[in-house]
Write a structure and sequence with these properties.
Length: 260
């Protein structure tokens, strides 16, 4: 018997990076998947890549913008009408935004980053929690960041949104524990995904790999995290084994956030 046999897991940002790695891990462990992403082509590619490794996996894909409340309601409805329930929710889609110091941080950029990273996570919880409360069980993992528990710099929108995700997690965890629902957040450090490559390109242009090598020297483990390491953590946190972890924010950053 696998940990996710018979379980339904909904993942936003499922086409790439941390969402994809977590989807693959839980498919290997028996989960039925509903994958949501803004990028429909990447979503179809992700589905066929998972099926190449796990041919028996049951997967639906839904193209949606998590910043659009109606679209969020719809992806939740579609998931429930296909699979009748949602056992686990990885509320993960997000963007970094353009880096700049606060006085030069674009107000439009701020609004955009917050609308995806924070409003999107709130809408997701709002509609999924209704289903989980009716079921009397469920587990949610929200993706925060080291930038949600520490100051990083040049990331006003990202910092505000990810600190907000931590607040939403603690608040809703306190509200919904009584219904058998646990809600946690992960706070990843630098994990090598297309988003981090984009961030390094903002700092170093074509020299982004050299910038990356320099960047990770300050990490206690002196390396980037791997997406599959997030997959193992998210699978554990969404499994029944982690049912008593609630309201918690779990760093996965090689120790970066503990360093003085
Ligand atoms: P990624 O760019 O590889 O994947 C993000 C996915 O989200 C993409 O497929 C993208 O199309 C999708 N997406 C973006 N905006 C969307 C929207 N409005 N609606 C629906 N889907 C949307 O990035 P990643 O590194 O896997 O990041 C995933 C999450 O992890 C983000 O919330 C990010 O802030 C967070 N995070 C990443 C790192 C890291 O080092 N990679 C560190 C801390 C936090």
């Amino acid at each position: 018997m696998k940990r996710f046999d018979g379980k339904v897991v909904l993942i936003t940002g499922g086409a790439s990076g941390l969402g994809y790695a977590s989807a693959l891990q839980m498919a290997k462990e028996g989960a039925k998947l509903s994958l949501v992403d803004l990028n429909g082509d990447a979503l179809e590619e992700a589905k066929s890549d998972i099926l190449a490794e796990v041919p028996e996996a049951e997967i639906i894909t839904i193209t949606a913008d998590v910043a659009d409340e109606e679209a969020v309601k719809k992806y939740v409805d579609e998931t429930v009408s296909k699979f009748q329930r949602i056992d686990g929710f990885f509320n993960n889609a997000g963007i970094e935004g353009k880096q700049n110091e606060t006085e030069n941080y674009g107000s439009d950029e701020f609004e955009k980053v917050v609308s995806i990273n924070l409003n999107g996570v709130f809408y997701g919880m709002k509609y999924v929690l209704k289903i989980m409360k009716e079921q009397g069980h469920g587990s949610i993992v929200n993706t925060a960041s080291v930038g949600g528990i520490r100051g990083v710099g040049n990331q006003s929108g990202y910092a505000a949104s990810k600190h907000g995700v931590v607040g939403l997690t603690r608040n809703s965890g306190v509200e919904y524990g009584q219904y058998g629902i646990s809600i946690k957040a992960i706070a990843p450090g630098a994990i090598m995904t297309p988003m981090v490559e984009g961030s390094l390109r903002q700092m170093g242009g074509d020299d982004w790999e050299a910038v990356g090598e320099e960047f990770v020297k300050s990490n206690p483990m002196q390396r980037f995290g791997k997406p599959e390491e997030i997959g193992y953590l998210v699978a554990f946190l969404l499994s029944d084994q982690a049912g008593f972890i609630n309201g918690a924010v779990i760093p996965i950053d090689g120790g970066q956030s503990y360093k003085y």
